[in-house]
Write a structure and sequence with these properties.
Oligomer: single chain
Shape: elongated
Radius of gyration: 24 Å
Number of domains: 2
Largest sheet: 2 strands, antiparallel
Strand order of the largest sheet: 1-2
Strand content: 5-15%
Order of helices and strands: EEHHHHEEHH
CATH superfamily of the largest domain: His-Me finger endonucleases
Low-confidence stretches: none
Number of strands: 4
Distance between the termini: 67 Å
């Protein structure tokens, strides 16, 4: 049991977020009080998130890569070089200053490669199911063989 520093209510440890910096290993405010404080802070400082990101865009991008995928810019750059500087599926180069999406297996969290947003969404919408993608490719191939319909034919 731990007492929230804001609402002064004694609550179980599960009512607090982990915080390695604290002696107890938990935040001083309970989750509801912490969420309320964060929402109030964001309301008072609506521009801070964008300033933080755009002021340190590369650092924020690398922080995201490390936190979500466990890779840094040097691994990202090595993957991009290995793929010839293009999307692993469609082989198109990135658009202006945009980054490629990091494709990963959702079950194992292993990074598979770098994809353009269209190809990454294609895999996601197919549920990362190779059979579904093969069926989609077969469907597209078979539809090319049929003659084009005139505008007067019923659908």
């Amino acid at each position: 049991m731990k007492t929230c520093s804001k609402c002064k209510t004694e609550k179980p440890a599960t009512a607090f977020y982990p915080d390695k910096r604290k002696r107890t290993g938990l935040t001083s405010r309970c989750k509801p009080c912490g969420a309320k404080y964060a929402a109030e802070w964001r309301a008072r400082n609506p521009h801070k998130g964008k300033e933080r990101y755009w002021g340190n865009r590369d650092a924020e991008r690398e922080r995201h890569l490390v936190k979500k995928y466990g890779i840094n810019f040097s691994v990202y750059a090595a993957l991009l070089t290995q793929q010839g500087g293009a999307c692993a599926i469609c082989k198109r180069a990135p658009i202006s200053d945009r980054f490629f999406d990091v494709d990963h297996c959702h079950a194992t969290n292993v990074v598979r490669g770098l994809l353009c947003t269209s190809c990454n969404r294609m895999l996601g919408h197919a549920g990362d199911n190779p059979e579904r993608l093969k069926a989609g490719a077969a469907y597209l191939q078979s539809s090319r063989k049929s003659p084009p319909r005139s505008s007067k034919q019923p659908v």
